[in-house]
Hints:
By secondary structure, this protein is mainly alpha-helical.
Amino acid sequence: xxxxxxxxxxxxxxxxxxxxxxxxxxxxxxxxxxxxxxxxxxxxxxxxxxxxxxxxxxxxxxxxxxxxxxxxxxxxxxxxxxxxxxxxxxxxxxxxxxxxxxxxxxxxxxxxxxxxxxxxxxxxxxxxxxxxxxxxxxxxxxxxxxxxxxxxxxxxxxxxxxxxxxxxxxxxxxxxxxxxxxxxxxxxxxxxxxxxxxxxxxxxxxxxxxxxxxxxxxxxxxxxxx
Length: 226
């Protein structure tokens, strides 16, 4: 390090200490407090730069509008991107969609489920869910049988073949999930997970209890109240 760089560095450090001293309202030198203050100042600069970059990316995108517009737009696009990774993960298997693997995973964790239960658990339209079950039945990955407690209902359970297919995909899906979240730090993942749990809990309640409500009714009941 040459002398000029040292002098410039000392000047920058002195300017920073003067700013700290002014904000603290004291000329008493407290190196520990100053170090913490300087650390937070640099962290805020970094955060400001990253936020600015993120905002620039958003404003250069096809959508402009409120923060709600932008969050919804990103979540919608993330759904498509996750399907992109899932499609690659399912290559060379007997499964064709993300619903196929989700149905098998639910059944692998339960002895059996009513058809309506597994469809609702997967947040799938009834007609689409029935098609998934038919596809899995045809490939002998699941089997169905009469519900002993409700003769009008059918229950579904995973077969040994279905379990083998699920186990074969476990590692690939774990790596795909890591890839999906690889753009953020570990601490950011925990923060994101907490937020996603919160928003999922809010909307799954609406999905489970308000299926017959109109959009206008949902607006009146929930908008700006969460």
